[in-house]
Amino acid sequence: MTEVPEYLFERSRQRRIDLGLLEDDGSGGGGGAGASGGEALTSSGSGSAEVIAAAKADAKLEQFAEPEAEPGWVSAARSRTKIPMWALPVMFFLPLWAFVYVKLTEPPPEPVTAITEGAATYAARCASCHGGDGAGSDGGGVGRPLYNGEVLLTFPKLEVDMLHWLEVGSEGIGLGNAYGATDRPGGSRISGETGANMPGFGGTLSEYKIYSVARYIREVLSQEPITDEEIAARDVEWEDRGGGKDVSGGGHGGGH
């Protein structure tokens, strides 16, 4: 017969009180009751088994510690709203959609004409000497005036003479030689007489660009009076020379 130590009775009793299975009668250590109880249990095998089982349960309960509180950032991460999976491809294609949308809503570019092309060529090649408005030396430039009909006095028609002058310049004509109309009011223009030689653009500008800049000088800067039929014929001539087929400026031997 196994004798159960007194302290096991007390621990079992106290654990039962803590778990609410036994009322505390205020007897404290339970010396007398514990002793008598011990005597009763020593004579009963079932009582000893019950006390031993209770002691083992107490030992197991003591091994489990109270769980620690979860950190706030972990709780916040668990509770926050997650991004749905379907949103990922949407976010990926959103910049592409925005690019396409902007391109589709942009106004179409203005069509290139002989005059718009001539204006761009003039601004890049001629304005530095003749001025943006064609005033030339009248406006502080070094080139001859091209506005107010001045170029029409030198070249009455858009024919070989004016185009040849633009292609070869002063050196191509020869310094000291006359160019343009010989019956010009005030006398013929002489190559190189102003000290500012005219460069030739035949090696840098394509044929249709030289034609378009000649039209811009005549029709816009010098306000040449021409009919709609003449404008249409010049447009056909510009296209026959290659105009309107190469907006980028490449492939025709020249550019702006």
Can you tell me about this structure?
This protein has 256 residues and is mostly helical. The protein folds into 2 domains: 6-63, no CATH class; 114-240, Cytochrome Bc1 Complex, Chain D, domain 2, CATH 1.10.760.10. The chain contains 11 helices and 2 strands. α1 (6-18) crosses α3 and α6 crosses α10. Mean pLDDT is 78; it is low at 30-45 and 247-256.
- Kindly provide the name of the CATH class of the largest domain: Mainly Alpha
Judging from the principal axes of the Cα atoms, what is the shape?
rod-shaped
Q: Helix/strand-derived class?
A: mainly alpha
**Can you identify the CATH superfamily of the largest domain?**
Cytochrome c-like domain
CATH architecture of the largest domain: Orthogonal Bundle
Strand content: under 5%
Quantity of strands, as a count = 2
At the third CATH level, what is the topology name of the largest domain? Cytochrome Bc1 Complex, Chain D, domain 2
Give the low-confidence spans. 30-45, 247-256
How do the helices and strands follow one another from N- to C-terminus? HHHHHHHHHEEHH
Characterize the biggest β-sheet: 2 strands, antiparallel
Number of helices in the DSSP assignment:
11
Helix content: 40-55%
Mean pLDDT: 78
Strand order of the largest sheet: 1-2
Distance between the termini: 118 Å
What radius of gyration results from the CA coordinates?
53 Å
Any idea how many domains? Answer: 2
